[in-house]
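Morning, I've got a small favour to ask if you have a moment. Here's the protein in full, and shout if anything looks odd to you:
***
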Amino acid sequence: MKGKNITFIVGAGAVQNAWNPVIRAINKTEDIETNGDGANFLFARYIYLLKFYSSIAKAGKHPKMFEMMKSNIRVLKKNIADELKKAQNSGEIKPRENFKEIVDKFVMSKVDRAYLVTTNWDNIIDLEINKLYRSNNPDTNSRIESFHIHGSIESPDELYLPSEITQEVYRTKEEEMKLGRNHGSLMSLLENGNRTVLYGISLDPLDAELNQTLGAGISSPNIEEVIIINPSHEIVANRVKLLLDKRYPAKILAYNPNDLNKKIEYN
């Protein structure tokens, strides 16, 4: 029996309390009190300012402002990484209770080959999936590798903030190439995959580059179905519809993570 290639893409919704450490880091860094919506608002504003000051610094104006903005964002990223590490170690952030049930039902089997991709900065899903399973890929020495498309707390300076893209005016060519390779690798996984599973990921408009990478990857004759596991699955399904290529009409199936027996079809 021939197996399928499955790309399992996990977002913050797969982790309990995922945003709490990030919000603490922002509050600590900026001496404010905000929430998840405010965090995304601030991230997008800071990236805009970094672009703006980078552009005018290249024209010889206000170079100190550009350096200050870079320094501020570097401090913020370090604080985010530190808070996430502490939250991991304390058990504050952890996988959702039905994580194993979801993976068993939609991802793992003896004949399928699965690839794990995460948009999260923390390592919670990486650690949990390796506690529960062994890789069916002989090239990974029985360890299931997780592909962090938006960076990892192990390298705080490389954290990818909401609204950022690969080709930013403030990046070096080396940074662009590294990030470009990451997105190219994800696209290749998707192109060769038969099933894409989106768990706890919303395809937020702030992540335009991720959305485009996903759309380009699933524009493939190999794709058979996209499975969405999200309480707000209707919103995500409508976004997936906008990404699918009409030449390759994959099935769009959705589940509320609290009721995995009820399948919703969006085609």
